[in-house]
Design brief:
Layout (H helix, E strand, L loop, with lengths): L1 H20 L7 H21 L8 H24 L1
C-alpha cells in the first residue's frame, strides 16, 4: 500500500508547489494537484530518458516530481493558448 500511496502524496505536494511557482497560470488547486501526480510520472520518465539521477530518497523524488509538474503545466499552458 505504501508503494502506491507515496507517489500520489509526493505528486500532490509537487503539484501544489508547481501551482505556486506558475501563479496566475494555474488551473485551480484540484487540477494543479492532478497535474502534480501526472508531473511526477512525467518527471521520472524525463529524467530516465535524459539519464539524469539526482539521488534517491524522498527529497530527490519530490524534486523530480516538482520539475515534471512544472514541465507539464508549461505544456498545458502552451496547448491552452492554441
Amino acid at each position: 500500500m505504501n508503494n502506491f500511496l507515496w507517489p500520489i502524496i509526493i505528486g500532490i505536494v509537487a503539484g501544489f508547489l508547481a501551482g505556486k511557482v506558475t501563479k496566475g497560470k494555474g488551473f485551480g488547486v484540484i487540477v494543479n494537484l492532478l497535474v502534480g501526480v501526472g508531473g511526477a510520472i512525467l518527471g521520472c520518465w524525463l529524467f530516465d530518458q535524459l539519464e539524469i539521477s539526482i539521488g534517491t530518497g524522498l527529497l530527490s523524488t519530490l524534486i523530480t516530481a516538482f520539475i515534471g509538474a512544472i514541465v507539464l503545466l508549461f505544456i498545458i499552458n502552451l496547448l491552452k493558448k492554441i
